[in-house]
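Model it.
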Amino acid sequence: MTANELITNLSNTSLVGQQISDLSIQENKDTLLELLNMAKNKVAEDTLLWLSGETITQVTGTQEYTLSTIPIQIIDIYDENQVLRKRNVPDYTGYYQTSPNKIRFNSIQNGLDIFINYYETPPDYLINDEIVIPPTLLSALQFYIVGKSFEQYKAEADIFTSAEYFKKYNSAIQSYLSKTDNSNADTIVSGENKIYKRGIV
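Modeled.
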């Protein structure tokens, strides 16, 4: 299903007759695309489904590095010697996340590769982009969009409808999470310094 097909489907079903934007059909579609991307961001945050990562090569004199994106959450950071870099630890192997996309290392070894794995928010959809997502999460996207759409109206009935769709969204997310092995578990098992390389970087 493309973003356009999803928006058209919602306009003809759950949002039939609803003008999210008061000016034109095209602006209504543009607003729904914005809501679709908001929903996609929320799904990414709630499911931690999208994995990514990058490699940083340390340079003498540089302790802080800027990531190419703002991660939802860093999974792990380790170097080419399989030494896990510990978060918020003051010893030489430690690092600090000083802003949403900046990492500061306590010690620098020139030329050493550091691997950073994290959960990310995927790029925004354009109107003709294909939405590749499990069916449960496709439903969750739609529930969230409709919930946000009704949230804009402020009438008591619309606020109630919005809340009901957000409940459906949460239920779809929980249904997905109950059937997946994706978890927010630490990568250190039984106290061992065991790195699970995901082959991402």
